[in-house]
Amino acid sequence: MTVTSYTERPNRKTEAVDALSVPWSGPRPKRTGISARMISAVTILAVLAVWTLAARLQLVSPVFLPSPLGVWNKFIVVARDGFVDATLLQHAVASLARVFAALVAALLIGVPVGLAIGISTIGRGIFDPLLEFLRPIPPLAYLPLVIIWFGIGEPSKILVIAIAMLAPVALSTASGVRGVSQERSNAARSLGATRTQVARHVILPSALPSILTGLRIALGAGWSTLVAAELVAATRGLGFMIQSAAQFLVTDVVVMGILVIAAIAFVLEFTIRRIERVLVPWAGRE
Amino acid sequence: MPHLVLDRISIHYDGQPAPAVERVSLDVAKGDFVVLVGRSGCGKTSLLNVAAGLVAPTGGRATTNGKPITAPGSDRAVVFQNDALFPWLTARENVAFALRLRGVQPAERARRADELLALVKLTDAGDKRIWELSGGMRQRVGLARALAAEPEFLLLDEPLGALDALTRERMQTTLLDLWAASDVGVLMVTHGIEEALVLATRIVVLAPGPGRLVRTFEPVFSRRYASGETIRAIKADPSFAAARGELTDAIFEGEGA
Question: Phi, psi (5° rounding) for residue B22?
Answer without folding.
Answer: -130, 115
